[in-house]
Every structure is written in structure tokens, then in C-alpha cells.
Design brief:
There is one protein chain. The protein is 38% helix and 13% strand. By secondary structure, it is α/β, with parallel strands linked by helices. Helix 2 packs parallel to helix 3 and helix 8 runs antiparallel to helix 9. The chain is globular, with a radius of gyration of 19 Å.
Length: 326
């Protein structure tokens, strides 16, 4: 991200936060549920949902831009499975919107020539070769390493994201060593129950396993481990059982979620229990007016949202931890 673009996003966040103005500044957009992997802890590929076509995606981008959107994080499924993903990224760039993309890395080699305008690529990475491949599929570790190398050769910023499950909870030190070897920052995302997806149950770490993971990470962060992307406050929040509820959630106010079929909601963790709005029925403006702060009784495990909530609460350690990959 160019410094001017980064400062523009930060200034917009702070200004809207202080003036209490609602705007979809930061949007997490799942473009597809399709995926070419069958990871042990994820069954999103089983959810066969309709996807917006290219012109519909462009329409939504236009509307978001008019409402003040500054950054979009494209997720999936595997977002690189969309044939039009390069066109979408290019169109965001045309509209002045910063873009991030999450990927398992397997399709980077096929898309690399069109990724020059992406702001940041977040690579799924779950441990050393034997652990990563067991959690995802054979050969997936080598695909990540090759993708990282290719992105760097093309001057595209890249980082890692680790989903913590029973399979890799005992390998945190190994994962940090892998991140150091690749010289990349890595964020840690707890596996969470969502929408009664049964495939998650057998892979969910126990509370004690989670506690041990975050004890290690927080201690390493305090010692100055520069490869851990999570801020100290968020690691402490996770270590304390996700119970620091005094921090205001900005989902629905400055943070939006969009589903593959074009539904806008404050947070997909609340899917089915809170109102959503269609991107295509003139409801983006309605969503802007109607969506309010999330009153969530659940413990939030979403690293991305928690980091932003601490940032927007002006917590010093989170602000100091800020990097280009926010």
C-alpha cells in the first residue's frame, strides 16, 4: 500500500470514528464458496450458493465507493477460483479502493500476471510441511512456499494467516520458526463454531489448548518476536478466554460483510439472527442508514474484527503494532 493510501484509510477511520459517522470503510467480501481444497476444519465448499456476476460485482463496488468505502478484503472459499478476479481487483483500483486477498496459494501461479494491483495477499499457512499438508492436502505446503516466492519476485506484499485447530495447536513454536524462515509476519486465527457446521466440532481445540497457544504467542510477542502479526492486546484478549467485552464492536458501523450472493450484513457470525440487505435491490443506501452497532452475546474469535475494534478504540499497543497488512 502506498503511504498516501494508507494515511487516507487511517484518517478516514479516525474521522468517522470521532464524528460517529456510519460508512462501509472496511468490507470483508466472500466472493465465492467454491474451493479446490478440502481442509479438515472447513466445509464451506459444500455450501453451493449463487454468486454475483462480474457486472453485479462492479455495480456493488461503485455503490460502496459512493458510500465511502476505502478497503475491501476478498475472501472465499478460494477467491482466485473466480475467472474474473483480476478484473475485479483492477476495477477496485480504478475506483481508488485498496484490496487484500486471502488464498490457499495453489492458484497464484496461474493468476500472478494480473495481480500487480492487489494491495496485500494473505496466505493460509497452518504449520510445517507434515502439519500443513495434514490439515489441508498433500502438496499444499510446497504450493504456499512457491506462491510466496512468486509474489515476492513480483513485488507483491504477502503475509501468512494460521487457523488454530487441534491438528496444529501443539506446533506453535514450529509455526513461528517457519514464519521466521520465510521472513513473513503471521496472524493467528482461532477456529470457531459458526452456523452449526458439524465438521468443526472434532477439530476444535479445548479451552486449555487455546490457553497454551496464546500463552506462548503473548510471551513471544512481549519478547519482541516481530513475526507475530497479532497485537499484544488481542493476544491477551484471546488468552483471557475472549472475555474483554468492554471494547465496542464497529461491525455494522464502519465494518461490513458481503456474502457471495450479495447480502450485506454487519457480521456473518450473526447470519440468520440479524437483518441483512441485498446489494442489488437498491438496499446499500438502506443498509448504510439502518445498520447499527452489533450487540453480540457471543465471544468474538475473529482476529481481523478484534484488531480493528482495538484500533478504533485507540489502544496504543494496537496502534503501534499497525503495519501495511492491516
Amino acid at each position: 500500500m502506498k503511504l498516501t493510501q494508507k494515511l487516507n484509510i487511517i484518517f478516514s477511520l479516525v474521522a468517522k470514528r470521532i464524528m460517529k459517522v456510519k460508512a462501509p470503510l472496511l468490507v470483508s467480501w466472500s466472493l465465492t464458496n467454491r474451493c479446490n481444497y478440502r481442509c479438515q476444519y472447513c466445509g464451506i465448499w459444500k455450501e453451493n450458493t449463487k454468486e454475483l456476476n462480474t457486472s453485479e460485482v462492479f455495480f456493488v463496488i461503485d455503490e460502496l465507493s459512493r458510500c465511502g468505502n476505502k478497503a475491501i478484503a476478498f475472501t472465499g472459499g478460494e477467491s482466485l477460483m473466480r475467472d474474473d478476479i483480476i478484473d475485479i481487483i483492477d476495477y477496485c483500483s480504478y475506483r481508488g479502493i485498496y484490496t487484500k486477498l486471502s488464498t490457499n496459494g495453489s492458484l497464484v501461479k496461474d493468476k500472478i500476471n494480473g495481480l500487480s494491483k492487489i494491495g496485500f495477499v494473505r496466505m493460509s499457512f497452518d504449520g510445517p510441511k507434515e502439519v500443513h499438508d495434514a490439515q489441508r492436502q498433500n502438496g499444499s505446503y510446497d504450493e504456499v512456499v512457491a506462491a510466496v516466492d512468486l509474489l515476492r519476485k513480483n513485488n507483491i506484499k504477502v503475509g501468512l494467516n494460521c487457523v488454530i485447530s487441534k491438528l496444529n495447536a501443539g506446533h506453535i513454536s514450529d509455526i513461528l520458526n517457519e514464519a521466521k524462515k520465510m521472513d513473513l509476519r503471521i496472524s493467528f486465527q482461532p477456529l470457531e463454531y459458526r452456523n452449526n457446521r458439524e465438521f468443526l466440532f472434532e477439530n476444535m481445540p479445548s479451552n486449555e489448548e487455546y490457553k497454551k497457544v496464546f500463552e506462548i504467542l503473548l510471551a513471544e510477542k512481549i519478547r519482541g518476536n516481530r513475526y507475530i502479526a497479532n497485537s499484544p492486546m488481542v493476544l491477551s484478549y484471546m488468552l483471557n478466554g475472549f472475555r474483554q467485552s468492554s471494547i465496542k464492536c464497529w461491525a455494522g458501523l464502519l465494518i461490513w460483510r458481503i456474502t457471495p450472493e450479495g447480502e450485506i450484513m454487519a457480521c456473518d457470525r450473526l447470519e440468520g439472527s440479524t437483518e441483512s440487505y441485498s446489494c442489488l435491490d437498491g438496499e446499500i443506501g438502506k443498509a448504510l442508514n439502518m445498520m447499527g452497532p452489533v450487540h453480540c452475546s457471543k465471544m468474538c474469535l475473529r482476529n481481523y474484527t478484534i484488531e480493528l475494534n482495538y484500533l478504533l478504540s485507540f489502544k496504543p499497543s494496537t496502534i503501534l503494532n499497525l503495519r501495511y497488512d492491516f
